[in-house]
Amino acid sequence: MGGFSYGLLNPKDCITDWKLCLLSYCFPFAPFGIAADKVIGEGDGYRCLILSGIPIVQYAVLPCWRMHVREAKGVDGNLLFDCLASYCCPCCTIFQASHQAGVDGDHEISKTIELMKRGAESFSPQKEMEKAKEQSKEAADDAKKSAEEAKQEAVA
Question: Is residue 4 part of a domain?
Answer without folding.
Answer: no
